[in-house]
From TrEMBL:
Keyword entries, A-Z: Cell membrane, Disulfide bond, Glycoprotein, Immunity, Membrane, Signal, Transmembrane, Transmembrane helix
Name this polypeptide is given: Uncharacterized protein LOC114451169
Signal peptide (from-to): 1-16
Domain Ig-like residues, every copy: 38-117, 156-243
Swiss-Prot/TrEMBL GO biological process terms: immune system process; response to bacterium
Location of this chain's protein in the cell: Cell membrane
Entry's transmembrane regions: 253-277
Gene for this chain: LOC114451169
Gene Ontology CC terms: plasma membrane
């Protein structure tokens, strides 16, 4: 029972690890990609998985939920692009290589957003890690200064605090602050932040925002970027890399090998148990067969008799003309009584 429990635990752990790494089949641009207003940008995405049925692209601005840009049936050469993106967005397709690149022409400030490449597999959607497209104008009125020391590698369970300071020119409209995390093996995550803003004598605004994570795990590792959306554009800091050492998480390969070894051991044990059962059954059948030969009434079905002794009939097989031989006794009937 304990062996079965351990096997199920390892299989569950393997599935969890594989679930984390599920997007590894998607190859797409990651991190932050910078462009200038008016440029043409191509975001790379490809996947050679035979189980893929659809490709898709999604855009998530800092202040909104993801929106679908395009969908592509695997073996088609032309993607279906949604109406609001048809004017400047196009999809470059190479079906033989599983390529589904997104091309944006005439880049504008409103195109600053996170872009995810997605695939449909068995009625489920998997996402790539995502890439943040940072569009700059030729004359930006926002200046950011990121004050954050280089973090020492952390242990699992530690707490970390990231800080960022933004100096912005005054302008109309709201100001939004964010943290953007790009992990090593997971899709990017946006963390909205309220921050604390104060007005300076020179008319600028000084905003400070902090990000605190308690009991960090391996999934928290990655690069964290400080971002501000103000005056119609987005500005991003240089980013801080968070590394974890001494991870207690088992590597996917080790977990897989242990699960396979446990499964093979279980199968071998079941086979041995079956062989022992059949062998024991055969031996018991042989024992019962020997005993039945010794017990006359049980095996032969001969009529029972109350006689307490055996009755013999002697035959003389000598023929005339032959030399004298010893008599041979042949028993015609043997009767016994069950004790």
């Amino acid at each position: 029972m304990m062996l079965l429990y351990l096997l199920l635990a390892l299989i569950n752990k393997t599935c969890a690890v594989l679930a984390v790494d599920k997007s590894s089949g998607i190859i797409q641009d990651t991190g932050v990609k910078t462009a200038t207003v008016g440029d043409t940008v191509t975001l790379q995405c490809s996947c050679l998985d035979d189980d893929v049925t659809y490709f898709s692209w999604y855009q998530q601005s800092l202040d909104s939920k993801p929106h679908t840009i395009s969908t592509l049936l695997k073996h088609n050469t032309e993607a279906d692009i949604y109406d609001e993106y048809k004017e400047r967005f196009d999809v470059v397709v190479q079906t033989e290589h599983g390529v589904n690149n997104l091309m944006i022409t005439g880049i504008s400030l409103s195109d600053s957003a996170m872009y995810y490449c997605g695939i449909s597999v068995f009625n489920g959607i998997e996402f790539g890690q995502g890439v943040f497209l940072h569009v700059k104008s030729s004359q930006s009125n926002i200046h950011t200064v990121v004050h954050q020391p280089v973090l020492e590698p952390l242990q699992q369970g530690d707490s970390m605090k990231l800080s960022c300071t933004v100096y912005a020119e005054p302008c109309a409209g709201e100001r939004s602050l964010y943290w953007i995390r790009h992990g090593a093996s997971q899709p990017a995550v946006l963390y909205p932040s309220e921050g604390q803003c104060t007005s300076l004598p020179n008319g600028r605004t000084n905003c400070s925002l902090n990000l605190t994570l308690n009991a960090v795990r391996s999934s928290d590792a990655g690069t964290y970027y400080c971002a501000v959306a103000s005056c119609g554009e987005v500005v991003i800091g240089d980013g801080t890399e968070v590394q974890l050492v001494g991870s207690s998480e088992m590597s996917p390969l080790l977990v897989y090998c242990l699960a396979v070894a446990m499964a093979v051991s279980t199968i071998v044990l079941l086979v041995l148990a079956f062989i022992l059962y059949k062998l024991k059954k055969s031996l018991c059948s042989a024992c019962k067969g020997t005993a039945s030969h010794l017990e006359c009434p049980a095996a032969s079905g001969a009529p029972r008799s109350d006689a307490d002794s055996l009755h013999y009939a002697a035959l003389d097989l000598r023929r005339s003309g032959e030399r004298h031989t010893d008599g041979v006794c042949v028993y015609s009937t043997v009767k016994c009584r069950k004790q």
